[in-house]
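User: Okay, second chain of the day. Same drill as before: sequence in, C-alpha cells out.
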Amino acid sequence: MLSTFANLFKIPDLKKKILMTAMFIAIYRIGAFIPTPGIDGGKLAQFFDNMAKTQGGTLFGMINMFSGGAIQRLTIFALGIMPYISASIILQLLTAVIPALERISKEGEEGRKKITQYTRYGTIILSVIQSFFIALWLENPARFQGMQVVPFPGWAFRILTVITLTSGTAFIMWLGEQIQEYGIGNGISLIITAGIISRLPAAIYQLVQLVNPMSAEKSQIDPFTLILMAVMLVMVVLAVVAITQGQRKIPIQYAKRVVGRKIYGGQSTFIPLRVNQAGVIPIIFAQSIILFPATIAGLVPSQAVQNIATMLTRGTIVYNLMYSLLIIFFCYFYTAITFNPIDISNNMKRFGGFVPGIRPGRQTAEYLDFIMTRITLPGAIFLSIIAVLPTIVSHALKIPYLVASFFGGTGLLIIVGVMLDTMRQIESHLLVRHYEGFMKKGRIRGRR
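Assistant: Same drill. C-alpha cells below.
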C-alpha cells in the first residue's frame, strides 16, 4: 500500500491531478468559514444547537451535513451542493416521464451536455428560491426564540443574501466541474465527501472526552466498549463495500455476422446488475420526508405538528419502522426510474445480443426486470439497516449521535462509494503506466 501511494507521485499527470483536486477542495473548505454579511453568527449557532438537542434531528441537520457545517454558520457556502443534487434528481425523474428530455438524453455527448446545462439552470433557480426564503426566515425573531439574528432586516439584506448564497452554490458547482476536468474526477461527489469528513475531528474530540484517558474515574466509555466500537466500524465498512460492489452478472452472447470477408460478433460478455442500484438516493428521500415534521415543529407553534414530531423523534420504534419502510419504497421507486429493461433489451436485439435460454425482445425485458426486482430487495433491506444503525448505536452505547453517525447512515455510504470510485480512477492511471494498483487481483494481465 505504501509503495502504491509512492507511485502516485511518480506519474506527472496523476500527480498534477491529485494536487489540483487537493487545491480545489481546500478552496471549498476555506469558503465554508466565510460568513454571510448581515447575520449574527453566534445567535444562529446557538439556535441550531438548541434545535439539535430538542428535536433530535431536522432537515437543517441533513443540509448541514452535506454542506460541511456551513449552514449552521450560514457562510457563503451555506446552501452547499444540495441545490445541484436536487436539480440533478428532478431532471433525472423528468427524463423518465418527458419524451423530449428522454430523446435528448439518448443523443450521446451532445445530449449529455444539454442535460448538464439544464441542471445548471435548475441549480441557480433552486438556489435563488431557497436563499430568498432563508433570508425571510432569518429576519423573523419569533423563529429563533426571540433572538435577533439579523440586526438590520429589509430588502437590502434579502437581496444581498440571495446574491451571496446563490453565488456560493454556483461557485461550488464550478469547483466540482474543475475537479472533474482537471482533477481525478468525481468532482461533486468529492466535495460532498470533503464536507462530511470535515465533521470527523469534532466526532473524535467528543469521543476523546467520553473516553477521558487522563482520568479513569470520569470516563464514560470503558475500554471494552471502545474496542467493540472499533470492530463494529470495521465490519460495517466491509459490509458497505461488499454491497456497494455487489452485482449480478447476466451473461450476454452476441451472434456471429459475416460482412464481406470479415466475421463480427460471436463474443460473450455480461450485464452487471447492481444490488444497490439506487445508491444513497433512497436514504436522502426518506430522511427528507421523515425529518420534515420535526423541522416544521421547530418553526410553527402547532400542537398537532408537535405531536407528530414527537412520535417521529429519532430513536423511537415508529421512527425506525417508518424510516426503514420509506427507504425500501424509494429503493424500488428510484430503481424503476433509472433502470429501463425495455431499452436494454432493444439495444441488445439491435446488435444481435441475447441472454442464453431467453428469447430476445419482450421476454428478455421481463427477465431483466424479474432479476432486478429480486436483487433490489436485499439491497433495500441493507440500506434500511445501515440508515437506522447510527440511532441504535447512539442509544445502546450512550454516545453522541455525531460520533454514532460514522457507524452508518448517509455519510458512511457516500464516503465509501466515492472513495471506491476514486480508487478505481487512480488505479486506471497506475495500470496504464504499468504500476500496481490499490485493488490487486493477482498479477496484471500481460506482465511477466
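The domain at 1-198 is CATH 1.10.3370.10 (Preprotein translocase SecY subunit).

User: Thanks, on to the next one.
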